[in-house]
Design goal:
MetI-like fold; mainly alpha
Length: 295
């Protein structure tokens, strides 16, 4: 009586070998990718169009690429001859330290007011939970208007209206904060899990209760990080808005540039870099600490 053919093959070692070949073939099928048409054609056509537009822009703007290789050398020579060594004593005076305090105050004012306005705007501008559908587009328009105009342009316009001083700089930074934080806040709200929102609404909660109990718990960590990062960005902008007449550290920079005091200018620029680096380190540490605390 003959035995089972499969058992005979198993005894001869043929079935495991066949299975091994099938597994190898399936592995190759999973890892191998072929040239797909027309998706690949679109990709390479877009890349070619981007390179062609770059070449056209360089030719149209008459950019002399031959001058780039020696750029760093000429810049180093100019800095060494005119701006070195920096006049550090110029930034250690009481007047300059007072402008540093003014810059910090202007930054805190703009950040706090801007964040306070950004929260309701983000709530209205989030398409998934906006409480009043008619206010969705106006809220998005306000955020886009604040973002579309650079803070330097806001400063110039407000200085022309309000005159020189800290007020136009503070308002310009507040508008910048509203556009920056409002955009990120609304995007964080639109990325939440809708299940919690639907559950709270099914329980009979109103719009405010939905926002407090279903939205805020999901975005509090993201909003905390965005708020700290917003202050960091606003502080960087505040160090130079004074150059356009809004007071602060930038006012000293403008005065030194107008006097052609190169070494004083170098000292002010160096101090701005140091202060921005310190604010970056501080904001990074606060973001990590707060994220762990509220998580």
């Amino acid at each position: 009586m003959h035995g089972d053919p499969s058992s005979e093959l198993s005894l001869r070692g043929l079935v495991p070998r066949e299975l091994e070949h099938k597994e190898a073939a399936s592995e190759i099928a999973r890892t191998w990718s072929r040239f797909r048409y027309p998706q690949s054609l679109y990709k390479y056509a877009a890349l070619l169009a981007a390179l062609a537009f770059l070449a056209f822009s360089v030719d149209y703007l008459d950019i002399d690429l031959d001058r780039l290789p020696g750029l760093l050398g000429r810049m180093s020579e100019t800095l060494a001859r005119r701006y070195f060594p920096p006049n550090v004593g110029h930034v250690l005076t009481l007047d300059y330290l007072h402008t540093l305090i003014e810059t910090l105050q202007m930054t805190w004012f703009a950040t706090l007011i801007g964040l306070a306005v950004s929260v309701p705007l983000a709530w209205l501008a989030a398409g998934n939970i906006t409480p009043v559908r008619l206010l969705y587009k106006p809220a998005r328009l306000v955020i886009m208007a604040c973002r579309s105009v650079h803070e330097m342009i806001w400063t110039i316009l407000l200085v022309m209206v309000l005159g020189y001083g800290m007020l136009p700089g503070a308002i310009a930074l507040t508008l910048f904060c509203i556009g920056f934080a409002g955009k990120l806040f609304s995007e964080a709200v639109e990325a939440i899990d809708p299940g919690q929102v639907e559950a709270i609404r099914a329980a009979g909660a109103n719009s405010m209760q939905v926002f407090v109990y279903a939205v805020l718990p999901q975005v509090r960590v993201a909003w905390t990080g965005i708020s700290i990062y917003t202050w960091d960005v606003v502080f960087r902008a505040a160090t130079v808005v004074g150059f356009f007449g809004a007071g602060g550290m930038g006012w000293f920079l403008r005065e030194s540039v107008q006097r052609v005091a190169s070494r004083d200018t170098a000292a002010i620029l160096l101090s701005i870099v140091v202060v921005v680096i310190l604010s970056e380190l501080l904001s990074a540490w606060v973001r990590k600490y707060v994220a762990r605390a509220v998580a």
